[in-house]
Specification:
2 domains; Rossmann fold; six-stranded mixed β-sheet; alpha/beta; about 260 residues; globular
Length: about 260
């Protein structure tokens, strides 16, 4: 790979706009570059277009204006983790994780090593034959992550995956997610409403405006990896939280009546 290819964004959104059939304008002139190896969080108020941007990158929505470009013109393997675990309740955990491979016509036997590897990576090696109803909310989300990882994606898209979890589970999954990113050398684009979560996870925090969404502040988070629980007590973490909180406050102030 040439130096130009290395420095080029993995994916670039340039002047992207999106209006839904009901007239709601979700995005307007959104510019976003995502480079290989980054962990970028999209932070902003509800309804500001963060999830729409994610769905465009996943190929689940198309822009009305602007353009989306992949490095070298090729879309890499993309994994998507939704806010809800969206597991099939009638299927075992093994069968739920098998689904992306099954859609690619990979047999159960041939898929088994990759499925067991993905479950082991998220700490669920012993639950392959369990059903979703037998697992906690945090465990079901781990299954959803394993299902996204089974294809070994270059890019992992995550749409508020931990929003409904209790704080202890959320903190643990934050830590485990960073470990998985480092282990698998993935790029992650992560939607969240949590300043604290974004400050812990990210190499960059992109703060969205109110709808129609665009990026109003791009915050670099320079704290080195690995980040552990002690990092949450550090001055660097608290300063990142302060900067991101102020950026959010500025956004929310724009929506208040005068």
């Amino acid at each position: 790979m040439t130096a130009t290819q290395v420095s080029a964004p993995l994916v670039s959104l340039q002047g992207v706009a999106k209006t839904f059939p009901n007239g709601v304008q979700a995005l307007h002139k959104l510019d976003l570059d995502l480079r290989a190896g980054e962990f970028v969080s999209l932070l902003g108020p509800s309804g500001c277009g963060k999830s729409t941007a994610l769905r465009m990158i996943a190929g689940l929505a198309t822009p009305d204006a602007g353009a989306l470009h992949w490095r070298e013109g090729a879309r890499p393997d993309v994994g998507f983790v939704f806010q809800d675990a969206t597991l099939m309740p009638w299927a075992t955990i093994f069968e739920n994780v098998w689904l992306p491979l099954r859609l690619r016509h990979v047999s159960r036997k041939d898929a088994a090593p990759a499925i067991h590897e993905a479950l082991a990576r998220v700490g669920l090696a012993d639950f392959a034959q369990a059903f979703p109803r037998e697992l906690s909310g945090g465990m079901r989300m781990r299954v959803s992550i394993a299902r996204a990882l089974v294809l070994r994606p270059t890019l992992l898209l995550m749409d508020e995956p931990f929003a409904a979890l209790d704080e202890i589970t959320r903190l643990r999954l934050n830590r485990d997610l960073l470990a998985l990113q480092a282990e698998l050398d993935m790029t992650v684009l992560f939607v969240t409403h949590s300043v604290y979560e974004s400050a812990y996870l990210s190499s960059r925090i992109c703060v969205f405006s109110n709808r129609p969404g665009r990026i109003v502040q791009d915050i670099a988070v320079t704290a080195p990896a690995p980040r552990d629980d002690q990092y949450r007590l550090s001055g660097a973490y608290l300063e990142t939280c302060r900067i991101a909180s102020q950026a959010l406050e500025d956004v929310m102030a724009e929506s208040l009546p005068v």
